[in-house]
């Protein structure tokens, strides 16, 4: 199925597993999450070629596109580029409506490129998550036990889908996040640099 297509480079795979070892998605979900005998980045490219997008159309989207798989592949299969190609085929050839995704990505781009908007979004995130979070019962007290977001009707449908099967970790309080810590410690870090 891959011969003579843009996905032909996947046939060079020697099944060494190097792409699986470096893939952050594979590390978190494991091999069974792919629903195919070919897990990891190589499976996300090969499975839709072998069995179609109807069965494995979600696999090309199960990637951070960090390109670690491509960098570590001993036969230099451009796995992250092939994942992007699968996404293009699904959006264009299968006539999937991507106008909603385009609008969302434009909003994210505007929000993350303007520091004022980004900080406002962080403030809203901390405020909303504080309201929605519930304290874990019976957990061992430690620095990470600040509560988790449980399934709730108030969450948007997309987030509720996540909390149907797992708890969403509560974000740190505003004065405990990395940005706040960095501001407090920046002077000390600069002093260490110049010593």
Features of the shown structure:
mainly alpha, three-stranded antiparallel β-sheet, 195 residues, 2 domains, Fumarate Reductase Iron-sulfur Protein, Chain B, domain 2, single chain
Structural account:
With 195 residues, this protein is mostly helical. It has two domains: 8-92, Orthogonal Bundle (Fumarate Reductase Iron-sulfur Protein, Chain B, domain 2), CATH 1.10.1060.10; 99-193, no CATH class. Helix content is 52%, strand content 3%. A three-stranded antiparallel β-sheet has the order 1-2-3. α3 runs parallel beside α6. The protein is globular. The model is unreliable at 136-145 (pLDDT under 50).
Alpha carbon gyration radius: 21 Å
Strand order of the largest sheet: 1-2-3
Q: What share of residues are in beta strands? A: under 5%
Structural class: mainly alpha
Whole-number tally of structural domains: 2
- Average pLDDT score: 80
Oligomer category? single chain
Biggest sheet descriptor: 3 strands, antiparallel
User: Distance between the terminal alpha carbons, to the nearest Å?
Assistant: 61 Å
* Fraction in helix: 40-55%
- Number of E-state strands: 3
Globular, elongated, flat, extended or rod-shaped: what is the shape? globular
InterPro entries: 4Fe4S_Fe-S-bd, 4Fe4S_Fe_S_CS, Helical_ferredxn, LutB/LldF, LutB_C
Pfam families: Fer4_8, LutB_C
Protein name: Iron-sulfur cluster binding protein
GO molecular function, one term: metal ion binding
